[in-house]
């Protein structure tokens, strides 16, 4: 299916004085897709997302949401956007339901307030003053307001920060329901598990540039898998093979390490082949690979590896820019 992207950004730039926080970002988000923007603190996520939300003008490049410039043509699209900022400025004196009703009054087609509060698990807190809510409850009220207008495009800036694991999962279910109904979502998060759970695609920002985009599986596949075990002989005693004792393993990157407990750690780009070779090697010598743990890299490992390598690359791209 080819359709125009709902969010389309080309060469976006944003400056604060002489400092450039967003340095030529390209991004497309298609209808019904969730793209998660990841990056370490100060990478430029909020600076970039504010351009797409139309809360600030770009200093260069082109930003389009639903075919419009979200800053200069904001009034034409604002009714189709739902924005959940990192901190919303509610009056603490209003109750939850009063806040929701006030917000509903600003929207063209609000969903029923009771439904929206129930969806985020705040129905039983409707008459509590906002000032008395916990941090996690305030976050859920933010989400209720952002989704009240049934937006075509939803911006979620760290939506589950401060939520307990159960509330976090409830938020994920709500977002998944909106995605299934065709909502397009741009999410920023520091929780890689959240990105793994929700994102169709991930974009990783580093010092104002996107250094990687792709599906979680593709990003993770580029990172070596981990294998760990303790080698024991026929008597059950742990033995520590040197690298020279081990069979030749084709996918192994860097030298296998033995930690203080005698556990051997290696990383390989050919998990199945190298595991098979290791098991054959152990079998032929009547050795056991105890507590064997072999697993693909997590998004977290891929993210940390990318962050290391891109900070080195960044110095080079600075000169080239
Ligand atoms: N109003 C501002 N004036 C000057 N510099 C700013 C301003 N806002 C942000 N910056 C700088 O721009 C860079 C990007 O900040 P931004 O808040 O966009 O990062 P972020 O990826 O959202 O970080 P976090 O994960 O901590 O929210 C940082 O170096 C920050 O110090």
TrEMBL record:
Bilayer topology: Peripheral membrane protein
Major site of localization recorded for this protein: membrane
Pfam families: ABC_tran
Keyword Signal listed: no
Protein name stated in the entry: ABC transporter ATP-binding protein
Domain ABC transporter: 7-232
Disulfide bond listed as a keyword: no
Record Gene3D superfamilies: P-loop containing nucleotide triphosphate hydrolases (3.40.50.300)
Locations listed in the record: Cell membrane
Record GO terms (molecular function): ATP binding
Source organism of this protein record: Isoptericola hypogeus
InterPro entries: AAA+_ATPase (IPR003593), ABC_transporter-like_ATP-bd (IPR003439), ABC_transporter-like_CS (IPR017871), ABC_transporter_ATP-binding (IPR050763), P-loop_NTPase (IPR027417)
Endpoints of the signal sequence: none
Classification via PANTHER family: ABC TRANSPORTER ATP-BINDING PROTEIN (PTHR42711)
Keywords noted in UniProt: Antibiotic resistance, ATP-binding, Nucleotide-binding, Transport
């Amino acid at each position: 299916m080819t359709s125009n992207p709902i969010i389309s950004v080309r060469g976006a730039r944003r400056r604060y004085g002489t400092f450039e926080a967003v340095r030529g970002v390209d991004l497309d988000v298609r209808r019904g897709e969730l793209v998660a923007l990841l990056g370490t603190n100060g990478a430029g996520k909020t600076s970039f997302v504010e351009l797409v939300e139309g809360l600030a003008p770009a200093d260069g490049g082109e930003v389009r949401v639903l075919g419009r410039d979200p800053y200069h043509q904001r009034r034409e699209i604002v009714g189709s956007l739902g924005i959940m900022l990192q901190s919303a400025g509610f009056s603490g004196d209003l109750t939850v339901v009063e806040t929701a009703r006030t917000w509903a009054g600003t929207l063209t087609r609000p969903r029923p307030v009771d439904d929206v509060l129930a969806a985020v698990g705040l129905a039983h807190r409707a008459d509590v003053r906002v000032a008395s809510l916990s941090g996690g409850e305030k976050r859920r009220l933010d989400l209720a307001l952002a989704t009240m207008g049934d937006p075509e495009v939803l911006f979620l800036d760290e939506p589950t920060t401060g939520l307990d694991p159960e509330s976090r999962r409830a938020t994920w279910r709500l977002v998944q329901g909106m995605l299934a109904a065709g909502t397009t979502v741009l999410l920023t998060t520091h929780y890689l598990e959240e990105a793994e759970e929700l994102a169709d695609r991930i974009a990783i920002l580093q010092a104002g540039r996107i250094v990687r985009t792709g599906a979680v599986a593709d990003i993770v596949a580029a990172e070596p898998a981990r294998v760990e075990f303790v080698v024991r002989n026929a008597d059950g005693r742990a033995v520590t093979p040197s690298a020279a004792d081990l069979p030749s393993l084709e996918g192994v990157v860097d030298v296998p390490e033995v930690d203080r407990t005698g556990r051997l750690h290696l990383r390989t780009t050919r998990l199945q082949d190298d595991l098979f070779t290791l098991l054959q090697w152990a079998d032929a010598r009547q050795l056991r690979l105890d507590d064997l743990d072999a697993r693909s890299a997590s998004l977290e490992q891929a993210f940390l590896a990318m962050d290391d390598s891109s900070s080195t690359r960044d110095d080079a791209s600075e000169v080239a820019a």
